[in-house]
Amino acid sequence: MVIYHKRFLIWWGLSLFLCKLSSRRQLDYQFHTDGPAVLANLNRLAGTAQASRPVNQTLEYFLAKIGGAPIAGLRQQMVQRLIRMKALDAARLQGRFVVLIDGSGYLVFRSPHCDDCLTQRHGETTLYMHQVLEAKLLGPAGTVVSIASEFIDNRDAQGVPAGASQERVKQDCELKALRRLAAGLRAEFPQLRICLGGDGLYACGEGFQVAKDYKCDYIYTFQPGRLPALWQDFQGLLRLCPDQQVVWTTPRGVRQVYRWVNGLQYTDSDGRDWMFNAIVCTETKTDGNQSEWSWVTSLEVSHETVVEVATKGGRVRWREENEGFNTQKNSGLNLEHAYSHTCWAAYYFLLQIAHLLLQLVEKGSLLRQLAQEQGKRTAVELFGSLKNMAQRLLDSLRYWIWPKEAFDPAGAGAIQIRLDSS
Ligand SMILES: [Zn+2]
After folding, report:
1. 3-state percent helix, strand, coil for the chain, nearest multiple of 5
2. 180 CA distance to ligand 1 middle (Å)
3. Which end of the chain has the least Cβ crowding within 10 Å, N or C?
4. Is the distance from CB of 266 to CB of 273 less than 8 angstroms?
5. How far is the CA of 339 from the centre of ligand 1 (A)?
């Protein structure tokens, strides 16, 4: 019997995502003996001396045994390191990190999968699902760093009135998960100054209370339809303070008019009183198309800060959806693929760690310098696509014995990956 070191198996599992192999079985084909350098390279990454390669089932047994928690712990250590190094500081807003909260589908099955599946009926068919509420810290250079994850299952749907709409079920589940998520985040990062960002679902008593209980600021989307009376108050107060306006034209010629009210008051359905600031931004594109966005926030809003708050805190929400979940679903990381029917949480955290490592490579200064030497602006432009970059990494892992210097901590210490937009 061969015994594999846990560090080796973790690297084996991370490589599944780093090389975007898309399914666990591909490990057996891509990391087979026809990739002569795989074993040596992974041994040196892991600091191990394995004499043979595991099969994909070995990884599965290992992850089933340890579960997701140790891998979530590894992610936490990595994020803490990045924060301590101040690598993410350039993205702070009023001294705080913006942590975007968003729910997403994760796994969907057409037959019952486990006792905890959320169920959703679509006509004749029932879907069995697992969803996740993610907290993603917004870093510089368009990076998004998964910092906490809470899985949503049918226990969160308990207590929702029978016959409630799917929208209502989603909202109740996400608000319950939000409280667990914030509690976990605070326990792991007790000192971190956090501003929660989220869509209109969180702009309610519970969303404000969670922020208060866990000492976070917040910026939530203000949806007129969800808080109609408050929206009326907001409109009335806006008319009373016409000076609270900033007009700004973006480099692309989009005209933005920001208006805001300080100290808007709101009493929630449980009778709790809240006070916050509200912003509305009306945007006119060069073709005359208009759109409007609004937010409520505990951050300071003034002539000096309104554009920054709305841009860094509010507008970036779309970036999470694009950079975060969409990348993980569509770029070969294959988030919604069931890598395992039992220890899927462990794979989820491996994917998050791999995505973080990939972003440092894809968006960091190392490859950007290389690209610029070749007359290109970014690494993606140099290699053609993210998929091509993953292919190059796979080629390199399979066929090229990585040089000794690459593993020399003293030498590596001199190499810095900076995350800035320059
Ligand atoms: Zn299930």
Report:
1. 45, 20, 35
2. 20
3. N
4. yes
5. 13
